[in-house]
Every structure is written in structure tokens, then in C-alpha cells.
Amino acid sequence: MKYVVLILALAISNFASALTVTGKVSAFRTFPKAQSVAAARNHVVFSLDTALSSGCTLLYVAPEDKTSIAVLLAAKFSNTDVTVTYNTESSPWHGPTCNALEVSVN
Fold first, then answer.
1. pLDDT category, 93, cuts 50, 70, 90?
2. Which of 47, 67, 72, 85 has the greatest number of beta carbons closer than 10 A?
3. What is the mean predicted confidence (pLDDT) over 40-58?
């Protein structure tokens, strides 16, 4: 039981320090498996037409987050606003690229 509480507390603290921004997807890039920087392989990097805070210039989504990737692609092609919840944890390959925790269509 104490492990469940610990896991929930960690998950809540991750979103407690999260920032939210709304805008249109202005750029979208997937790093291929052959990417020279191993930490970047299969990740999706994107930017919005809205400024990010805390030194972030780009956002990234892990390759396992298929739902967020699908939402980003659909929003890019339909020119629809998305709301992105992100934290300032930088990517292992580029400091100003921050971690997108959740992506949703408005």
C-alpha cells in the first residue's frame, strides 16, 4: 500500500510543476532509428506558434506515447489548436527541448 501512495505522490508532483500552453503545431520532426545521437532515436520533437516558458524552445514526446503523436499529427494537418502540458525537464540530447507530458486537441 505504501508503494501505491508513493507512486501516486510522484505522479502528482510531476504534474504539479507542469506548465500548460495552447497553440498550433508549427513544426514536427521524428528522429529516425539511425540518428547519430542514441538518446534522440524515435522521439518526436515539435514546436508551437506560441512561446514556451522556462527556457524551452522545443517540446518532445517519447516514442511510446502514440496517442500524443497521433494528436500532434492530426492537429498539424488540420491546423487545429492543441493544449500541451509540459515540464522543464530537458531532453538528454538538447537542453532547451522540454518534455511534453500530455497533448490534447481543443
1. confident
2. 72
3. 88
Can you tell me whether residue 104 is helix, strand or coil?
Answer: strand
Cβ pair 66, 27 in contact under 8 A: no
Q: What is the DSSP string of 38-87?
A: GGGTT-EEEEESS--STT--EEEE-TT-HHHHHHHHHHHHHT-EEEEEEE
Could you give the angle at the alpha carbon of 99 between the alpha carbons of 4 and 74, nearest 5°? 105
Q: Give the C-alpha distances (Å, rounded to integers) separating 90 from 5, 40, 76, 106.
A: 27, 12, 23, 26
CA distance 81 to 21: 10
Grid coordinates in use for 96? 532547451
Neighbour-count burial for 23-32, b at 16+ CB within 10 Å, e otherwise: bebeebebbe
Of 3, 33, 23, 35, nearest to 100 (Cα)? 23
Q: What are phi and psi of 53, to 5 degrees?
A: -110, 175
For residue 105, give the amino acid letter.
V
